[in-house]
Amino acid sequence: METAFQVGSYKTTLINNRRYLGNKYKLLSFITDVVDAECTGVEVIADIFAGTGAVASAFADRRLITNDILYSNYICNFAWFGAQAYEPRKIIELIVYYNALFVDTRNYMTDNFSDTYFSRADCAKIGFIREDIERRCRRGELNRREQAILITSLLYAMDKIALTCGHYDAFRQGAEPDQPLELRVPLAPIENDPHNQCYNEDANNLVKRITADLVYIDPPYNSRQYCDAYHVLENVARWEKPEVFGVGRKMDRRGLKSRYCTRDASAAFETLVKDIRARYILLSYNNMAAKGNARSNAKISDEDILRILSARGKVKVFSADHKAFNAGQSAIRDNAERLFLCVCNKGEG
């Protein structure tokens, strides 16, 4: 390694230390209680809309299959759950090195994002670090999982200081950062189950090729596209340096749009459920229905959910109180997160 210094102090981070719409971290006990009480012999769990991986983390003692259409989520899931081993000291040394850097050179980030979601100084550092990770990979200094862990550390650090209200639809104009960029060491297990698999594709395509004991489904509920809300993190994770446009500095995201945010959501869900090969299907879906504004309302009705799942087997519904994300000032009362558990008919899945 090129770093000629003693490893100094550093901070660590856990999987839940990231802001994300629909994050289920606070509902993990609800989800695991239902699985433990209602499902038997579950050794392989597929989380096919994994997001940040919060739910998958609750089942890390089993074989995991994770998937997300956003590469920024896939790379984080590979960091936390990937089957490949890594060297913790290498990660620590690089993160200490990155935190000690002073960077004042132009790069893709300074040219496109200075004084928007981040200050120019932070953009200079973000761009340098991301490029350095790629350079070290090309030279064979990092394996695939080490690369993913370092990118994850950078994405978490960016999210902590971003001048947003929790997503990247817009930045707080004129706001000043209240803390500098600081990477933390992700406390990812050194060795996960060697059969774990992480995917980055459309869930409807993936389920045709995988088999699990339980498939957990947590699709987008409403018209808010996740690629719109997290385009900056997606851009940095991919590091393809695309042209960005508009006040929000967004890249072309047409290939990342989800059908579950459109009027086709029910049809997409029906096709998905028909193609799943598992003994149990567990769906998370809240009861927003028409409680919020038009963008927040659920795209799949309870009637459709029950009809579609019932075609595969016996369905039970469980409910827990849950505070909904709301960017406005209005309060949404009696919001609940529901779990629809389908015990698939024998001979199916």
Descriptive overview:
- This protein is an alpha/beta fold.
- The chain has 2 domains: 20-76 and 192-223 and 262-349, Vaccinia Virus protein VP39 (Rossmann fold); 84-191 and 228-254, no CATH class.
- It has helices at residues 28-38, 54-57, 71-81, 88-100, 108-113, 120-138, 144-161, 203-206, 226-229, 231-238, 265-275, 302-310; strands at residues 12-13, 44-47, 63-67, 185-186, 197-199, 214-217, 280-286, 313-321, 336-344.
- Helices cover 34% and strands 13% of the residues.
- It has 12 helices and 9 strands.
- Mean pLDDT is 90; it is low at 1-6, 290-295 and 322-333.
- The strands form 2 sheets. A 7-stranded mixed β-sheet has the order 5-3-2-6-7-9-8, sandwiched between helices. Strands 1-4 form a two-stranded parallel ribbon.
Would you summarize the structure shown here?
By secondary structure, this protein is α/β, with parallel strands linked by helices.
List descriptors.
single chain, 12 helices, seven-stranded mixed sheet, 349 residues, 2 domains, Rossmann fold, disordered N terminus
Give a topology summary:
Layout: E1 12-13, H1 28-38, E2 44-47, H2 54-57, E3 63-67, H3 71-81, H4 88-100, H5 108-113, H6 120-138, H7 144-161, E4 185-186, E5 197-199, H8 203-206, E6 214-217, H9 226-229, H10 231-238, H11 265-275, E7 280-286, H12 302-310, E8 313-321, E9 336-344
Parallel strand pairs: 1-4, 2-3, 2-6, 3-5, 6-7
Antiparallel strand pairs: 7-9, 8-9
